[in-house]
Design goal:
The chain contains seven helices and 14 strands. The chain is about 30% helix and about 30% strand. The chain is α/β, with parallel strands linked by helices. Bound molecules: glutamine (GLN).
């Protein structure tokens, strides 16, 4: 089996180890004999995003989000078609914000989003930011997962119809929402850096499975060869213990 990934704005959007998501994705595919190709995309690069099984966009500072927004908006139709054709999309923090209606930066500048979804992001009052380790409980197509990560965002994301999970420690979409991220079956957006994948092998495997589905509609999550996640699970347990949620 093959997995074709496009890592969008790899040179601009890469905060708190987001790059680690691609490293772990590659490793977990290779260990299973899944042939993975990770292409990168920078501002101005010609790419047909419909050709990919997975699009990945990491987080970034306000300045970086502003830097790439025109290029991202120019790809709107191509991204829409890719999603329509079954491409899975993984978005972290700043990338997650840009798929919604808009993002109001810390300097009160409005950045128009791709407007694929109804959620929108304002900024924390008086420059306040949601910072720290976070743990959430999520249900991914029936699979119950406790995930951990690190968040650092001024953005307060509201009007999320289908959150990724319920916050058990930390903030998530905003200071007071109690929910984290967005998941609609084909797009997963989250504030969790850390990076997300090394700390949460269940989520990596879920994303691999959902992405493989584009060309292998019958594939099941259980079809993925089981890997030894002892260390990853120990690390997660240590964090949950530190957060006093276990
Ligand atoms: N600049 C955005 C914010 O502060 C996103 C930050 C991030 O990706 N960590 O909300």
């Amino acid at each position: 089996m093959e997995l074709n990934v496009c890592w969008m704005y790899h040179d601009i959007m890469d905060l708190y180890g987001d790059k680690g998501n691609m490293m772990v994705l590659q490793k977990r595919c290779e260990e299973r004999g899944i042939s993975i190709t990770i292409d990168t995309l920078s501002i101005g690069d010609q790419r047909d995003l419909r050709a990919y099984d997975l699009l990945f966009l990491g987080g970034g500072a306000d300045k970086e989000q502003m830097m790439l927004i025109d290029d991202l908006l120019s790809r709107r139709e191509n991204i829409r078609e890719a999603m329509e054709q079954g491409t899975f999309v993984l978005l972290i923090c700043g990338g997650y914000q840009l798929f919604g209606q808009y993002y109001i930066s810390a300097d009160n500048e409005k950045i128009e989003g791709l407007k694929f979804f109804d959620y929108y992001t304002t900024t924390g009052s008086n420059g306040t930011r949601c910072i720290g380790n976070i743990a959430i409980r999520c249900n991914l197509d029936g699979h119950e997962i406790t995930a951990v990560g690190f968040e650092n965002h001024g953005g307060q994301t509201c009007n999320v119809a289908t959150p990724l999970g319920k916050v058990i420690s930390g903030y998530g979409n905003s200071f007071d929402s109690g929910y984290e991220g967005f998941y609609n079956g084909s797009v997963l957006g989250t504030y969790m850096h850390g990076p997300l994948f090394p700390k949460n092998p269940e989520i990596v495997d879920f994303v691999i499975y959902k992405s493989l589905k584009k060309n292998h509609p019958d594939v099941q999550l259980e079809d993925l060869i089981q890997l030894d996640d002892t260390l990853e699970q120990k690390a997660k347990e240590a964090m949950l213990k530190r957060l006093q949620v276990q």
